[in-house]
Amino acid sequence: MNPHDLLLHGDSGQLWPVPTGADPALTVNDAYQRALALRQLRLARGEQPRGYKIGFTNRTLWPIYSVFAPIWGTVYDSTLSFCDGLGHVALTHTCQPRIEPETVFGFARTPAPGASVDELFAALDWIAPGFEIVQSHLPDWKFTAAETVMDGALHAKLLVGTKLAVAEVVTSAPALEAYLQSASVTLSKNAVAVASGQGANVLDNPLRALHHFLAELRACPGATDIRPGDVVTTGTCTNAWPVAVGETWEAAFSQPLGKLSVRFRL
């Protein structure tokens, strides 16, 4: 799949052809270069990057999907939305969409080179509950790690709930890590609980996942660094659940993050 084909299938919501024609020797690093070329095509037509998503930070999911390390991809103005507790997300042109409850961060500034966790904490602006709608353009969610990277890191949409200033929640990186590690979330579909998870599932806690991602991003040739105002969602606390038009989903996070709900439409 070349970048133009990737863009076409992303726009149409159609599955990739099977087999995909990908080189069996294609590495994850090669796949990031194709993903960056796809990013350039999206920029050329007017879409604007608004940050990043991190995927496969939940180690409990690695054997389910046969992907054994985190990946990352770009979030765009066309895929990002905000709400104050209840949002609406269109599923038009998504492909096999699923929902993931996640912790989302907003950046006030670019972290220092080689930033420690403490320096990363100092660069943050806000924290919020979020829903990432993920998708796969390969049948039955069967893929290789390289294919997930080429597939936009499986990103379709990101809904961010009420933002809380980090400085008003905690005063230090260790305090934020402790909160995030023990924080829980219950995911419900049409008012019926279907799953639960905790922050410890996300590479021990979402701040550590963010720190890992920053190093990976900066090691990728051609990747754009974190910029002030960027949003980064850190990965799911539960498995990803299939969603459909007409459904309402809710994630009840530990306080102070609180609840986030989404209704799906065409």
CATH homolog superfamily = Fumarylacetoacetase-like, C-terminal domain
Tertiary shape: globular
How do the helices and strands follow one another from N- to C-terminus? Answer: HHEHEEEEHEHEEHHEEHEEEE
Main beta sheet: 9 strands, mixed
Return residue spans where pLDDT drops below 50 for at least 5 consecutive residues: none
Number of self-contained structural domains: 1
Gyration radius over CA? 17 Å
Number of strands: 14
Number of alpha- plus pi-helical segments = 8
Strand content: 25-35%
Classified by CATH, the class is: Alpha Beta
Category by helix and strand content: alpha+beta
The residue fraction in helices comes out at: 25-40%
Instruction: Write the CATH fold name.
Output: Fumarylacetoacetate hydrolase, domain 2
CATH architecture: Alpha-Beta Complex
Q: CA-to-CA gap between the ends?
A: 28 Å
Quote the average pLDDT.
Answer: 97
Describe the structure.
Helix content is 27%, strand content 32%. The chain is of the alpha+beta class. It has a single domain, classed as Fumarylacetoacetase-like, C-terminal domain (Fumarylacetoacetate hydrolase, domain 2), CATH 3.90.850. Strands 1, 2, 3, 5, 6, 7, 8, 11 and 12 form a 9-stranded mixed beta sheet that branches. β13 and β14 form a beta hairpin. The longest helix is centred in the first third of the chain and has 17 residues.
